Amino acid sequence: MKDISQRAKQYIDQLSLSVEKNTPYVTPLTASLQANKWCNSRCEYCGIWKNNPGNPLIEDLYLAVDELNELGVQMISLTGGEPFLNNDLYQVIQRMNDKQVISSTMTNGLLLNSKHLQPILEAGLNSLCVSLDSIDPSIYKSIRGVSLAPVLKGLKYVADIRNQYPMLFVFSVNCVISKANIDGVADLVAFCNDLDISVGFQPLHRSFESRYNPERLQFHTEDLLPLKRQIEKLVKMKQAGSRIDNDEAYLLGFPDFLVYKRLPERTICTAGFTTISVDVDLNVRSCWPKKPIGNLHSQKLTELWHSDIYSQNRASMLGLDCPKCWLRCHTDYLSVQWLMNLLDKILLAKSIKSECRGEV
Ligand SMILES: C[S@@+](CC[C@H](N)C(=O)[O-])C[C@H]1O[C@@H](n2cnc3c(N)ncnc32)[C@H](O)[C@@H]1O
Ligand code: SF4
Ligand code: SF4
Up-side HSE of residue 38: CA atoms within 13 Å toward CB? Predict the structure, then answer.
């Protein structure tokens, strides 16, 4: 472990230098890769489900995995749309496994059954994250437009079989905090923790192509104090040992973001160095809310990473000349201690992965 912390510290030092000089001496730790952009859910805050069905060519996803791996990305998270609707998903995970990249995917949980899961777990999936906004069936349906029952069944199914898959290091839930579910988030943590599932939170964003009714999901000035109380409750639960995956500073940023769309003072966003996003058409973004800066069909990712256009993007990100999100995949990593812990976990996971493959 000491060795791992040493490597994590080296990364942080290189990251500081990268920020100081606006030059990438590091490569991203994590990447999000869109596995498709259609969906079988009906979430009120997300417009993706209005897209036509269709999956990308597997060759395109392989190309993205290969390019991200060549760049030095440690962990790739397959997102969507709904990734489980792509029947090639297991092959993409296999590709990551072959390349020693940590594989992760995020799902709405509607297809967490043996038919869809088994190929994915057998391919060596390392991290499975299920979106769950409420454990109350009517609140869940009012936010996500579909029934909660198959998701809960699926969570229990994974909880039952996970021990058969030692490569599955992480099994977690992601909950989007909005006005509709805030009162139930502590119960949701308790429910998930009882099943040995950790929970991470992300605030509702208005910038996605959504059709949600702001009055129902959105917080207003008069909601600030009760919202702060709920967030402080979560922080206390975390301090008391509940398994909540976010950094405390990130959680404490929720009220101002949700009510005023304001980020904490003196935030500099380092996501342009630590993460990278590739969409289903292989457009590359320095973070999801920003416009594409290149495409893997016509450019090598390593060249793009070191290009002037990428540097200009990073400079604008450091100065928050951007849509200003508070997305987990980008801004939960802004605290150095948190990043250090994340790195420790990634490096440890990589060594466990090698052990599972009989390489140590
Ligand atoms: C776009 S979904 C893709 C994966 C999968 N379909 C799912 O729902 O887990 C990834 C995550 O983004 C969250 N999300 C979608 N729209 C959002 C919004 N407007 N604000 C905050 N989070 C959002 C979802 O709840 C989900 O946890
Ligand atoms: S959040 Fe996920 S499950 Fe909901 S509509 Fe968007 S892609 Fe589908
Ligand atoms: S805060 Fe700005 S630069 Fe950072 S990830 Fe969000 S939109 Fe991108």
Answer: 8
Residues in a beta bridge with 30: 75, 275
Structural tokens at position 343: 């790195």
Confidence of residue 206 (pLDDT cuts 50, 70, 90): confident
Q: What is the separation, in whole angstroms, between the first and last Cα of the chain?
A: 16
Task: Give the Å distance between the CA of 304 and the centre of ligand 3.
Answer: 19
Question: Do 175 and 202 meet the contact criterion of CB atoms below 8 Å apart?
Answer: yes
Q: Measured between alpha carbons, how far is 262 from 285 in angstroms, rounded to an integer?
A: 22
pLDDT > 50? residue 276: yes
Per DSSP, 244 falls in state B
Ligand 3 lined by 334 (C-beta under 6 Å)? no
Q: Is the pTM of this model over 0.90?
A: yes
> Which neighbouring-strand residues pair with 304?
none
CA 145/CA 160 separation, integer angstroms: 27
Bridge partners for 131 per DSSP: 174
pLDDT tens digits, one per residue of 120-164: 999 999 999 999 999 999 999 999 999 999 999 999 999 999 999
Q: How far apart are CA 266 and CA 356, in angstroms?
A: 43
Q: Residue 333: which residues within 8 A CB-CB, separation 6 or more? A: 29, 30, 247, 270, 271, 274, 275, 339, 342
Any atom of ligand 2 within 6 Å of the Cβ of 82 = yes
Contact 332, 56 (CB under 8 A): no
- Judge if the beta carbon of residue 208 lies within 6 A of ligand 1: yes
Q: If you take atom 7 of ligand 2, which residue's CA is the nearest one?
A: 81
| Residue 23 one-letter amino acid | T
CA dist 287 and 274 (Å) reads 10
By C-alpha distance, which of 335, 316, 312 is closest to 251? 335
* C-alpha span between 180 and 216 (Å, rounded): 6
Identify which ligand lies nearest to the alpha carbon of 202. 1
User: Would you state the structure tokens that stand for residue 225, as one six-digit string?
Assistant: 């104090």
344 neighbors 5 (Cβ within 8 angstroms): yes
Q: Which ligand is nearest to the CA of 204?
A: 1
Residue 314 vs residues 120, 204, 212, 250, 286: alpha-carbon distances, Å: 35, 24, 31, 21, 8
Is 48 close to ligand 2, i.e. is its CB under 6 Å away? Answer: yes
User: Is 80's C-beta closer than 6 angstroms to any atom of ligand 2?
Assistant: yes
